[in-house]
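Hi support team,

I submitted a single chain yesterday and got back a structure, but I'm not sure I'm reading the token output correctly. Could someone confirm the output below corresponds to the sequence I sent? I've pasted both exactly as they appear in my results page.

Thanks,
R.
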Amino acid sequence: MIDPILHSQLVQLCTQGFLERKTLRDSEPSLLSLLNDLGVSVTEAEHRLEIESALELIDMESIRTHFSEDSLQDSFEWQYHLVTESTNADALKSFESSRRPCIALAEMQTGGRGRRGRAWISPFGKNIYCTIGMHKSIEGCNPGLLSIVTGIALCKALEICGIGDVRLKWPNDLYYQNKKLGGILIESRMSGVGEYFFAIGFGINVSMDEQSFGNIPQPATSVHLINNFPVSRDVILREAIRQVVAMIDNFDESTVPQVVEAFDAIDAFRNAPISVTTPKQSIDGRNAGINNAGQLLLDTDAGQLEFSAADISVRGRL
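Hi R., thanks for writing in. Yes, this is the structure output for that exact sequence:
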């Protein structure tokens, strides 16, 4: 938990790009230490502290009040942290204490995770880290398709915000021109008979530059690099939350064919030769899309094989 005074000073510095040192007094060493921990570079000028450029912090209240005319504003518990372990963990803690749907946002994650426990790089003030916690009956609803539904919703949200041609790499990665733009991680807890609480977490790279991706072991990109100019995280978040909540709410057995069809239209490796890697082997074949259970279909010389999301990774062989 960040001290309230340091929290206020950090917000001021990020918003305006500088702080007069005379206003900091005894808290300056603590603020400098915090900035170092957050990875925010600062110049110590004679009379003030300066950062290279002002950071646009998330305006949670503005996002929340944007939904004042529908049920999103009051039916969800809203959380915002400058720094948190993970927004998924925040949503699951909220479920344990209140059982309410929630939306958890953060400027930075210290323990962000991707599939199979992989670390998710989560720099301060650069990207979107969001988890939408929702109750969902699994009667007539296939939970194996939830990450696909979420991905379709995020692609639609990004297109509305002017970032077109984003595709899905099965089962839960956002891709743009064969580079990773974001990812999805869904966790769940049983909340009743036939019902689960799903923590639907997603991250989207927004303002990271080429240098920021230097330590990431796979090709990656950001909204800024795609558009070549800044796009407000608040704008993307508002549309992403709206689309994900609506599509998850409407998802049931009757919509499965539409989900499979929608995924096929934005499949990053549609009909492409791919290698599917399991803990025991790597299998080459041609991507044949997904079935109604959300499983990957792979056409091989030995016939068509099915793979679930839990134990495989996919690499394009293009």
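A quick pointer for reading it: Residues 205 and 222 are 5 Å apart (CA to CA). Let us know if anything else looks off.

Best,
Support desk
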